[in-house]
Amino acid sequence: MELGGGGAAAGPGPALGRSGLEALQQTVGSVLSSYGWYILLAAVAVYVLVQKLCKLFPHFLEPDVVVRRQEALAAARLRMQEELNAQAERYKEKQRQLEEEKRRQKIAMWESMQEGKSYKGNLKLNQQEVESGASASTVPKSKANKKPLRGGGYNPLSGEGGGTCSWRPGRRGPSAGG
């Protein structure tokens, strides 16, 4: 059976194709004879690895699972953004209230100055009112029961009463090196 299909009239074309095919077969044969076992073992290892990965991660191959996971992720991000927006709104409202309180204090201070009263006294009264409202919920701590950390005669510069640690200045004059 001839590949050229024609005998002597076919010309040099089929002879060139036949020699090229033989060269290809010879090259492939030599590569397979030299590295055939290595190629076979590598193919088997890749096949086993793909099978293990498909068992461990089946959700990568199912598009429905991927779509559901992405939708859940988008919903969680939306909830977090809504919470953040609500916190920002509460913070803005608190800042507005603080600014309004400061503005009221400034107005009260200005009015007291216009009347010739001391504005510092009014400011102290306003702060005491705010503190009294805040201290009603907390229990004040008494400082009378606390002991002092050191005795009354302690002076760190004198070197007395401090314990074992004391600092002495170094020798004056040039060093004794030579």
TrEMBL record:
InterPro entries: Selenoprotein_S. Residues 127-178 are annotated as: Disordered. GO terms for cellular component: Derlin-1 retrotranslocation complex; Derlin-1-VIMP complex. It holds the Pfam family Selenoprotein_S. It is a single-pass membrane protein. It is found in: Cytoplasm; Endoplasmic reticulum membrane. The keyword Transmembrane applies. Residues 77-108 form a coiled coil. Keywords: Coiled coil, Cytoplasm, Endoplasmic reticulum, Membrane, Selenocysteine, Transmembrane, Transmembrane helix. Its main location: cytoplasm. The keyword rRNA-binding does not apply. Residues 127-140 have a biased composition (Polar residues). Residues 150-164 have a biased composition (Gly residues). The chain crosses the membrane at residues 32-50. GO terms for biological process: endoplasmic reticulum unfolded protein response; retrograde protein transport, ER to cytosol. Belongs to the selenoprotein S family. This is SELS protein. It comes from Oreocharis arfaki. The lineage of its organism: Eukaryota, Metazoa, Chordata, Craniata, Vertebrata. The gene is Selenos.
